[in-house]
Amino acid sequence: MANIKQLKSELEDSLYMKTISQTIGEVATMRVKATRRQIEHAGSYFQEVSQVFQALKILAGKETPFKTNGKTLSILLTSNLKFNGEIDDKVTDYYIEKTAKWTTDRLVIGSTGQALLTAQHYPYPTAFYQFSQDFPQLTEIQKLVSVIKSYSQILVFYTR
To answer: How many angstroms separate the most distant Cα atoms in the chain?
Structure first.
């Protein structure tokens, strides 16, 4: 039979364990909230980028006001801060698989794509472009458009 001293010690240990468990739970809650904020922020970023591409798609249906060079450009669009995790990995692998078969110029937007291609020693010449913030400034978009506007065909690989 346990004596009073042992019971008090076990009760005290149980209270410590309860406090530790509550603290761990609070830390986990804070991390989940921070991750949720990051995901929401990334979602709005990609909605903005999607709107840019929708505008480009509409323009592509009209007569092209630019002189084209007859070439194809393949663009890999990834996040800057690995918000998409495994999804960026999958779209990058798909990009590598598909563009290996084509005669195309290559452009990677976002630091995640650049890091993945560099890590895999991607053998094809590739230009890299990164926006300074999650929401690109008008000047950054204009600079990107000036680079891609001369292509006859633009293929965009992105997560959705």
So the answer is: 93
User: What is the C-alpha to C-alpha distance for residues 71 and 104, in angstroms, rounded to an integer?
Assistant: 7
Count CA atoms closer than 13 A to 82's CA, side-chain side. Answer: 6
Element (H, E) at 140: helix 138-148
Which pLDDT tens digit goes with each residue over 121-151?
889 999 888 888 767 888 888 888 888 888 8
What burial class does residue 150 get, using C-beta atoms within 10 Å of its C-beta: 0-12 exposed, 13-18 middle, 19+ buried?
middle
b/e sequence 127-147, b meaning 16+ C-beta within 10 Å: eebebeebebeeeeeeebeee
What lies within 8 Å, CB to CB, of 41 at 6+ separation is 83, 134
Q: How far apart are CA 6 and CA 96, in angstroms?
A: 65
Give the model's confidence band at 52: pLDDT under 50 very low, under 70 low, under 90 confident, else very high: confident
pTM of the predicted protein model = 0.56
